[in-house]
Amino acid sequence: MTVLVGPADATGPTGRAGYGNEHNEGDDMVKVRRWFPSFLFVLPSIILIGIFVYGFIGNNIIGSFAMVRTRSGRIKAPGGFQNYSSLIGDPRYQHALWNLLVLTVTFVAGTMFFGLLWALLLERGAKFEGLFRSLLLFPMAISFVAAGVVWRWLLSPATGAQAVGLNQLFQMMGLGGLQSSWYSAGRFNMAAMAIPAIWQLSGYIMALFLAGFRGISEDQREAARVDGATEFKLYRYVLFPQLSPIALSALIIVGHMSMKMFDLIYSIAGQSSYTAEVPATLMWTQMFQLNDPTAAAVNATLLLLIVAVAVIPYLIYTNRTEKGVH
Amino acid sequence: MRGKKLAALATASLLVLSGAACGSSTESGSGSASTPASTPKAGGAGGTVGVFTWWADGSEKKGLDALEKMFNEQYPNDKFENLAVAGGSGSNAKAKLASDLKNGNPPGSFQGHAGAELMDYIDADQVQPVDSIINGLGGSKVFPQTLLDRLTVDGHIYSVPVDIHRANVVWTNPALLKKAGVTSTPKDVDGWLADMAKVKASGVSTPLSIGGTWTQTELFESILASTLGADEYSKLFTKDGKWDSDGVKKSIEQYKKALTFANTASDGDDWPNATDMVADGKAAYNVMGDWAVAQFEMKGKKYKTDWDAFAMPGKEDIFDFLADSFTLPTGTKNPGASEDWLRFVGSKDAQVTFNKLKGSIPPRTDIAPTGFSEYQQSAMKDFKSPDTKIVSSIAHGAAVPLAWSSEINTAMSKFYQDKNTDNLVKAFVAAHDKYAQ
Fold first, then answer.
1. Rg (CA), chain A
2. What are the E-state strand segments in B62-203?
3. Distance CA A249, CA A243 (A)
4. What is the third-level CATH fold of B41-164+323-371?
C-alpha cells in the first residue's frame, strides 16, 4: 500500500513549497490551481467511464425491469421484480449458480495454494529462479480462448481404448484408475473446469506473493533468527502476517475473474452445454440465442450484485487501511 | 456532455426511424406490383452491395470468392463488398449481425439458414419479402415446391436459397461392416441398431461416433424424422405439434440405444473428430450433414471403397434439408444492388459454380448433374426424386427459430448426462409451448 501513497506525497507539498506563502490573499486561487490541472487530466476518463461503465450499468438495470410482450401478445417478461423471481426460480439458473460456486471455490483455492507454494519455493532460493519464474508465469500470456482449444482436447471424457488427452496420458503412465469424465459428468464437474484456470493464473498469484516477500526487509528475518525463531515460526509470525493485504488482493482478483469467467468455458464446452453452464455463459445464450435481452439483463444485474458482494467489502477495507497510513 | 449524449441518442433514433420508414415504403412497393416488380437493369442498379456471410474459410470461402468474381463481371455497375465474419459456424457472425441490424445499419444482403431461423428477423421487420425475385427466377418451375413451402412464412418468401445440404446422412466404413457381416443397408432405425450390435460383436468398441451437443441433436432429428415420417415430423413444429406422442418417445428410446454404441463425447467436441473416426476405421457409422464429404476427401479417402453413405432409413425416404440463403434487409442503402445480388445468387450459373466448390447441391432443379462429384450427383437425384420427402433440420435452424433450437440443444446436452426420457420429453413440450405459433 505504501507504493500507492508514495508518489502523491512526493509531488504534493515538496514540488510547490513556498508558492503559497507569497500569495496569501489568493489562497483559494492556489487551491484551484492545485487541483484543477489534475482534474482536467482525469476528466476524459471520468466522462468515458461515466458513460461506458456506469451509464450502461444503469441502462442494463433499467432494462432488466422491462415488461416485454411479443407481437402475438405472449408475455415474454412480466416486468418489475417478477423478472428477477422468475429467473431465480428457474432450475436452469440455479444449476448455473451451483456450477459457479463449485468453479469459484476450486479455482480460488487452487490458485492461492499453488501460487503461494511456488512463491515459497522460489523465495527459499531455488536455483534458476529467473527461469522458473518465467516458466510459471508464461501460461498467463496465453488467452483463455487459445488455451481452451487445447484443454478441450486434454479434458476429453473418453476413457479406455478411445481415450485422448489427460486420460490417455494417465493410461500410458499406468495410472488408468485416475481417468475421469472431467467436466462432462457429475455434480462437482465444474471443479475440472477450474484446472485450466488454475494452470493459467497460479503464476500470477506467485508473482504477487513473491513481490510481497521481496518487500519485507532482510533485517526482520535476521532479527527473528537472532531471537531464536525457527524457520516455521519466522514464516508464521513474521512474514505471513505482512502478506495478508497481498493475499486479500489476490483473493479478490481471482475471485471476481472466476465469477465472470466466460471465454474459457465457452471455448472448452461449446455453445449449448448445459453441463458446464454458469451465469455468464447462460447470459450469452439468453442474449444471442434465446433472443431474450430482458432475461440477460436480469442475469447480468444479478452477476454484478454477486461480484459486488465480494469486491465492495474489499474496497472499504483498503480505503480504511490507506487512511490508517496517513 | 449530457446534451451531446442526448443529441447523439436523438440522431441515432432518428436514423432508426428513417430506416424503418424507408423499409416499409419499399416493402409496400414490392408488394403492390406482383410479378416483375423490380425489373433488373442491365449491368446492375449501381452502388455498393455489402454481403454479410460466415464464409471466411475453406471451401466456403473459395465458393464466395468465385461468386464475387462472377458478380463483378455480370453487374459492372455494382460494387461487391465482402463482409464475412469468421468463426463458430456462424454464431460470431450472427452476434455481429444482430447488433448491426439493431443499430439500423443493415448490410446489403446477409446469409441466413433458410426457413424458421429467419423468423426472428421477419418478426422484427428486419427483412423484406423477395417473392418477386423468386418468381422472376422461375418460381416453382426451377425450385421444388416442397422446398418453397418450407421457405414460406405467412404467404411470403423471405430469402433466396443458394445451396442445399442434407443432414440425415449415415456415413459408413465399408471395411468394418464387411468384417461384421453387415451386407445390406438397414430398412429402418431398429434394423440399423441391430447392425450396430453386430459391429460391436465383431470387436469394434464404438460402432457409432458422435461429437458435441449439436451433432447429437442432428443424430436425434434424423432418427425422429425416420421413425415419425415426414408429415408427422413436420407437424411437430406447428401449433398442434405433439412432442409427448408415442412416436417421439419411441425415437428417444432408439436414440438412447444408439448412444450405448457410441464413443464418450464432451459437449464442446467438434464434428470433424467424429467423422474422422469413421475414416480411420475406429467407428463404423457417423451421422453428419453432407459437408462431411470434404472431410473424407481431405484425408484422401475414396467414395464407395474407403467410405460410403446412406440416408437414415425409416418410414419413407427423407431428405432432412438445410439451406443457406440470402435476404433483402429492411432499410438497406442500395436496395437495387441488393436485388441484383439476390437475382445473381438465384441464377443457374452462380449456383453451379458455387455448389461445385462448396460441395453442396444447388436448390434449382434445372441444373444438369454433370461436373458434380459422385456423391453430389446421388444427392441431387434424391433431392429431385418425387418419392423423397423434404423435411427441415432442427439443428441447423430450418425447422425452428434459433431460440427454440437452442432450448432443444440444451435439453439434448442434459439428456446426454441423465439419459432420462421423461425429462427430455418435458423439455421438448415446454420449448414447443413457448415458441410454437
1. 26
2. 78-82, 109-113, 127-128, 152-153, 156-157, 159-166, 169-172
3. 10
4. D-Maltodextrin-Binding Protein; domain 2 (3.40.190)
Same CATH topology for B41-164+323-371 and B169-311+401-435: the answer is yes
Q: Is the ipTM of this complex over 0.90?
A: no
A-B C-beta contacts closer than 8 Å: 92
Which CATH number goes with the domain that contains A253?
1.10.3720.10
Which residues does chain B have within 8 Å of residue A275's beta carbon, measured at their own beta carbons? 267, 413-414, 416-417
Asked whether residue A212 is assigned to any structural domain, the reply reads: yes
C-alpha dihedral (A111, A114, A120, A124), degrees to nearest 10 = -140
Residue A161 falls within a domain, yes or no?
Answer: yes
> A70: which chain B residues are within 8 Å (Cβ-Cβ)?
123
The CATH code of the domain at B169-311+401-435 is 3.40.190.10
pLDDT in tens, chain A (326 residues): 333 333 344 444 444 444 444 555 567 777 778 888 888 999 999 999 999 999 999 999 999 999 887 766 677 888 889 999 999 999 999 999 999 999 999 999 999 999 999 999 998 877 888 898 889 899 988 999 999 989 998 998 888 778 888 998 998 888 888 888 898 888 899 999 999 999 999 999 999 999 999 999 889 989 998 998 888 899 999 899 999 889 988 999 999 899 989 999 999 998 778 999 999 999 999 988 888 889 999 999 999 999 998 888 888 888 888 776 65
Domain ranges for chain B: 41-164+323-371, 169-311+401-435
Does residue A250 lie in a domain region?
A: yes
Are A234 and A221 spatial neighbours (Cβ–Cβ below 8 Å)?
yes
Cross-chain Cβ contact A158/B264 below 8 Å = yes
Gap between the Cα atoms of A274 and A298, Å rounded: 19
- In A, minimum Cα distance to B209 occurs at A162
Give me the residues paired with residue B327 across strands. Answer: B159
Q: A92 at the B interface (CB within 8 A)?
A: yes
Check CB contact of A158 with chain B, cutoff 8 Å: yes
How far does CA A117 lie from the centroid of its chain? Answer: 19
| A308 belongs to a structural domain | yes
Contacts of B407 in chain A (CB under 8 A): 290
**Residues of A (52-81) whose Cβ lies below 8 Å from B:** 70-72
> Which residues 192-251 of A have a C-beta within 8 angstroms of B?
none
User: Which of A196, A193, A184, A192 has the alpha carbon at shortest distance from A274?
Assistant: A184
Is the Cβ pair A162, B123 closer than 8 Å? no
The boundaries of the domain holding residue A154 are: 90-325
Spatial distance between the Cα atoms of A224 and A239, rounded to a whole number of angstroms? 10
Q: Which residues of A touch B419 (CB under 8 A)?
A: none
A273 in contact with chain B, both atoms CB, cutoff 8 A: yes
Number of domains making up chain A: 1
